[in-house]
Predict the structure.
Amino acid sequence: MNFDFTETQLMIRETARKFAEDELAPSTIERDEQEEFPHEAVKKLGELGFMGMMAPEQYGGAGLDTISYLLAIVEISKVDASCGVIMSVNNSLVCYGINEWGSEEQKQKYLIPLATGKMLGAFALSEPEAGSDASNQRTIAVRDGNYYVLNGTKNWITNGANADVVLVMATTDKSKGSHGVSTFIVEKGIPGFSVAKKEKKLGIRSSDTVSLSFLDCRIPVENRIGEEGFGFKFAMRTLDGGRIGIAAQALGIAKASLHASLNYSKQRKAFDQPIAAFQAIQFKLADMATKIDAAELLTLKAAALKEAGKPYALAAAMAKLYTSKIAVDAALEAIQIHGGYGYVREYLVERYLRDAKITEIYEGTSEIQRLVISRALLKD
Ligand code: CAA
């Protein structure tokens, strides 16, 4: 077992760290306050090759491995978890999905601009009545010659307002249940496609989360990914990888919480000494660091299995379940260590808590991760 990163992985981590500190940090608080999408940062992330990190170079990607990708998301999310999820959705769900299962024409037309950051992608699975119960798709796509006619509503879609293309899961044959769902690449601006509602959220407020509405949208048959009926498996397999991205985002928030707590506890004095001199604070820091290390190992394991072409759905579910939990815990402890300062918006740690909470909800709630894990344990 080797715990060393390669030179490339270290270089990517350093590039992401520098980008986050130079380009994101100065405006993160304001963008959170204003709920403002980081257009300029996303453009620059594209130029750095960070919007299609694992996509092959021939399709505009950076051709990097999953560990490099994970390290980049951690560094970005330490400073700006909204940017972390924007990146994660485009990389893990959209680019990965098209690269793995898309046709050559789809890769030429969509993957190249998505991986180079010229286009932004979104992934539309969730619906008003299909969150955890994802196969209960009410959005329908009815074949009409060389087109499908798409009707329905999608909810809580990250990147939805700013996306140029959306991967939409829809029922093509209700009688077949989860085997009757298909995935379509839907372009922004086609007649009948509209952004219905922008959500006002607790955290990750500079990423956009919207409802999308499809009213008699005509989608060319060549925009279906894979065979008719492959859509649910496409979504599940894509989300297995997405969960590594969200675990990395949570890890970034947890690390930021620890970093802020270490700095603050060395500076803040009470009873004539820095609060770091008190065992009550020291033990909090020790627990945070230990949990972060365990979470990092789980997340790296999931990424390494994926990279090695081995089954990784179970490891990804464990990584997301544990890392999202310790991110919330770490943010709460950071607030406690900061005392009254931790509760005000001038300090960063209250945002860490607001941003961390969503990692226990999207790309499969913690309850769904436990379901995936326990089903795997009880399978035989
Ligand atoms: N890989 C491959 N195939 C899979 C799979 C996986 N990970 N998971 C399930 N399948 C297959 C099953 O093998 C089964 O196939 P067969 O019928 O051929 O045997 C089929 O899919 C149906 O599976 P289940 O019977 O397990 O389906 P289910 O209805 O019980 O649901 C579930 C399973 C795990 C609960 C699933 O619905 C799920 O993951 N729900 C959560 C959805 C989710 O994560 N949503 C996130 C939205 S996207 C998002 O959040 C992005 C963002 O904006 C940040």
Summary: The chain has three domains: 7-120, 122-229, 233-378.
